[in-house]
Specification:
With 442 residues, the protein is an alpha+beta fold. The chain contains nine helices and 24 strands. It has helices at 94-104, 168-177, 186-195, 207-213, 282-296, 323-328, 340-347, 399-422, 426-435, and strands at residues 3-4, 18-20, 34-38, 47-55, 58-63, 75-80, 89-91, 107-112, 122-124, 140-142, 147-155, 158-165, 199-205, 221-226, 231-232, 245-253, 258-260, 264-267, 272-273, 301-309, 353-361, 370-374, 381-382, 384-389.
Length: 442
């Protein structure tokens, strides 16, 4: 999504009453469970994170940086659909995005089978969730390049320019002559944005100001604007990429989940029972599952990993964000009362809905920028994987025999399902299960 300019080649980027009785080994009707592991964005080495907040035609986009190297060489170029004033630009604390990442991450939960001779009945009440520009300056036109510097701003540790251009070659030469290193192939992509009448948000680090502010790391940049366009301009991110990349998009809206308008939007395989040993290998498990899903869609789909009301979670991989954090990420319609989100969590509702999307892309499979639409669908979804600990007590009733028969069938299904969603060897899965006491009979 973002073109990063530097000596280093760096990554780019810019989701009824239930009665559970005699169901000790059946999939749970309610989510619940005890959360034990998560698959956050750090699993994917070539990943970048972007937070979108959309309210009507107001969009906020926050770009997390994964730059490693000399900050003097850091720079970004981001196409934007309209002129940007200073008041529309800010920085966000990295920990806020990290919190959102953990809250929405695919998760592993565990259950423990009850004694089949003494099943426990419990119910979840219906409707009760489980907690868990400075004003625009004089335009500076360079006849030599056909580039207009429409504004320049000091934003925390960044120096920001807002540019417009007449031709891509002029913009390329201007960036190059002003010490922005442009990778080969960028000119054609820049030209397509120029034809759309888009401007360019260009930022680089002011090292002296960064030292004065005492920041040890680059903070994510945020840009807010008003436009009918609701999209992520990821094509620039393919220019200096060595191969496919992962982009994780967290979208905050008023009404419901978002989906791609020009690519297939697919839910990640979920609610799958997995063997016990997966607990210690949840990261590799989820990577394999995601990669198999990507291959099945020929790397031409946008995957939903999480879609949920921000007021509550079940099970919670992290506490819901406070309203202050949501406002920081662009959901300004919700207010900034720190406690409101947690009160909503207990009551079961919030004025913000979050969608986590994950896309693996390259220039061939995603030749167009992703355009989004906001739906009114507030149904909950999460990438959720379940492990059931067998009951290992003494047999004191006739129900134990039927339990053990169903248990053997469950182990066989877990092995087959794990092989299907990951591509892992079925025989190796069976062997690993046996080491955990889950014997798959042939």
């Amino acid at each position: 999504m973002i073109l990063r300019l530097s000596n280093n080649i760096v990554r780019t980027g810019v989701a009824a009453t239930a009665i559970l009785a005699h169901a000790a080994i059946a999939p749970a009707n309610a989510f619940c469970g005890f959360y034990v592991a998560q698959a956050d964005a750090k699993l994917f080495n070539q990943s970048s994170k972007v937070v979108l907040a959309r309210d009507g035609d107001q969009t906020s986009i926050t770009m997390a940086s994964d730059f490693e190297g000399d900050v003097k060489e850091f720079a970004v170029v981001v196409p934007v659909p309209t002129f940007i004033e200073r008041k529309q630009i800010g920085v966000v604390e990295p920990k806020t995005i990290d919190h959102l990442d953990k809250y929405t991450a695919p998760r592993l939960v565990e259950y423990h089978d009850e004694d089949p001779c003494h099943p426990i009945m419990y119910r979840m009440a219906a409707g009760v969730p489980m907690p868990a520009a400075v004003a625009r300056g004089e335009a500076s036109m360079s006849r030599q390049y056909g580039v207009t510097i429409e504004a320049s701003y000091d934003v925390a540790e960044y120096d920001v320019l807002i540019l417009s251009a007449q031709e891509s070659d002029g913009l390329t030469r201007w960036l190059t002559d002003n010490a922005y290193r442009i990778p080969q192939g960028a000119e054609a992509v820049l030209g397509s944005y120029i034809k759309q009448g888009m401007r360019f948000f260009v930022a680089k680090v002011n090292v002296e100001r960064m030292k004065a502010l005492g920041n040890g790391q680059l903070r994510p940049l945020q840009v807010r604007y008003q436009s009918a366009k609701f999209m992520v301009p990821l094509r620039l991110g393919t220019v200096n990429a060595k191969g496919p990349q992962d982009l994780i998009i967290y979208a905050l809206t008023r009404s419901g989940r978002i989906e791609a308008a020009n690519y297939r939007t697919v839910k990640i395989p979920s609610d799958i029972d997995v063997p016990l040993y997966v607990k210690n290998e949840f990261g590799p498990f989820y990577k394999a599952l995601f990669e198999r899903a990507v291959a099945r869609e020929n790397m031409q789909a946008v995957f939903v990993e999480y879609a949920w009301d921000m007021g509550w979670c079940d099970p919670c991989a992290a506490d819901p964000l406070s309203n202050k954090e949501l406002a920081e990420l662009g959901a300004r319609w919700i207010g900034s009362d720190d406690d409101t989100a947690f009160r909503a969590r207990r009551g079961g509702g919030s004025d913000a809905f979050v969608t986590r999307l994950h896309v693996r892309y390259d220039a061939k499979t995603f030749p167009e920028d992703i355009v989004f639409i906001e739906t009114k669908d507030r149904s909950n979804f999460q990438g959720r994987y379940v492990q059931h600990h067998p009951w290992r007590g003494e047999a004191t009733c006739e129900a134990t025999k039927s339990y053990q028969e169903r248990l053997a069938a469950r182990f066989a299904k877990e092995a087959a399902d794990l092989a299907a969603v990951t591509g892992w060897s079925h025989s190796e899965i069976v062997a690993r299960m046996a080491q955990s006491g889950e014997t798959v009979t042939k």
